[in-house]
C-alpha cells in the first residue's frame, strides 16, 4: 500500500502539516518543525508562511 501525505490528527500544533510530514517521512515531528523554521528564516519568512498556508489547504485530513 502506498503512503499518502496527510495532515496529522494526533500530532499537531497548528494544522497538522508538520506532523503529517513527519509521519510520511518516518521522522520526529519536532525535527520537521525545526527544519521548517530554520528554512523559513533563511529563505525569507514570507515564503515559508505562504507555503505552509497552501499546504494546510492542499493536504487531506488524516484519520
Description:
With 63 residues, the protein is mainly alpha-helical. The chain has one domain. It has helices at residues 17-25, 29-43, 45-58; strands at residues 6-7, 60-61. Strands 1-2 form a two-stranded parallel ribbon. Helix 1 (17-25) crosses helix 2 and helix 2 crosses helix 3 (45-58). The longest helix is centred in the middle third of the chain and has 15 residues, at 29-43.
Strand order of the largest sheet: 1-2
Tally of contiguous helical segments: 3
Helix content: 55-70%
Number of domains: 1
Q: Structural class, please?
A: mainly alpha
The beta-strand count equals 2
Provide the succession of SSEs.
Answer: EHHHE
State the separation between the terminal residues, measured CA to CA: 16 Å
Mean pLDDT: 88
Oligomer: single chain
Indicate the radius of gyration in whole angstroms.
12 Å
> What is the overall silhouette?
globular
User: Which ranges are low-confidence, i.e. pLDDT below 50, for 5 or more consecutive residues?
Assistant: none
Percentage of β-strand residues: 5-15%
Most strands sheet: 2 strands, parallel
In short:
The protein has 63 residues and is mainly α.
Layout of helices and strands:
Elements (H helix, E strand, L loop, with lengths): L5 E2 L9 H9 L3 H15 L1 H14 L1 E2 L2
Helix pairs in contact: 1-2, 2-3
Defining key terms:
single chain, 63 residues, mainly alpha, two-stranded parallel sheet, 3 helices, 2 strands
Amino acid at each position: 500500500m502506498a503512503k499518502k501525505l496527510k495532515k496529522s490528527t494526533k500530532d499537531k500544533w497548528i494544522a497538522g502539516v508538520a506532523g503529517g510530514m513527519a509521519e510520511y517521512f518516518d521522522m520526529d515531528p519536532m525535527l520537521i518543525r525545526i527544519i521548517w523554521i530554520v528554512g523559513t528564516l533563511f529563505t525569507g519568512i514570507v515564503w515559508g508562511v505562504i507555503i505552509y498556508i497552501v499546504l494546510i489547504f492542499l493536504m487531506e485530513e488524516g484519520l
